[in-house]
Amino acid sequence: MEITENTPLNLAVVVGSNREGRFGPVIADWFLANAARHNDFAVDVIDLADPAHDLPTALSRDPAPAVRDRLAGISPRLAAADAFVVITPEYNHSFPASIKNLIDWHYGEWQAKPVGFVSYGGMSGGLRAVEQLRQVFAEMHAVTVRDTVSFHNAFGHFGEDGRHQDPTGPDTAAKTMLDQLSWWAHALRDAKAVRPYGG
Predict the structure, then answer these.
(1) DSSP assignment of the chain, as one string?
(2) Class of domain 9-194
(3) N vs C: which end of the chain shows fewer Cβ within 10 Å?
């Protein structure tokens, strides 16, 4: 397929928590509604609570057939992405092991692509998890965008229907982050079309 300026950017949204009783789907639904309003993106949701994405923590250069099957279901989707958004809670001042495991099973899939973050938690709003993820993605040769979306004391901001009770500020923050992600994704996609990244 020929890629033009009008070709939608493939945005992979990684829902990072696989914890029992997680709040992640509420945050994800809110974010996906915002992403749907941004005309630059075609969105693919990768939910790490899906058993099909349950990768072992023991990494291997020669995975067992069952692991290869699971990688076959997720690796091409990461490779096809032009950009990523990681939705992460903060556990014990850091991000969940499920996210690190997904990152560690892959390498080239992340390279020369932008990453944005939506975080949630208690008083810190998940920002400590984001700052640690920035270091990890730098090692993957990815580019993290400056602006993030964070929910401090996230449970108190959403009603029983899952809707944010005062969405103006968060919606504006999401648009800012998506605009930055779009710029970087276009710039990097165009650059790689001229000169493949050699990281």
Answers:
(1) ----TTSPEEEEEEE----TT-SHHHHHHHHHHHHHT-TTEEEEEEETTSGGG---SS--SS--HHHHHHHHHHHHHHHH-SEEEEEEE-BTTB--HHHHHHHHT-SGGGTT-EEEEEEEESTTTTHHHHHHHHHHHHHTT-EE-S--EEEETGGGGB-TTS-BSSTHHHHHHHHHHHHHHHHHHHHHHHHHHHS----
(2) alpha beta
(3) N
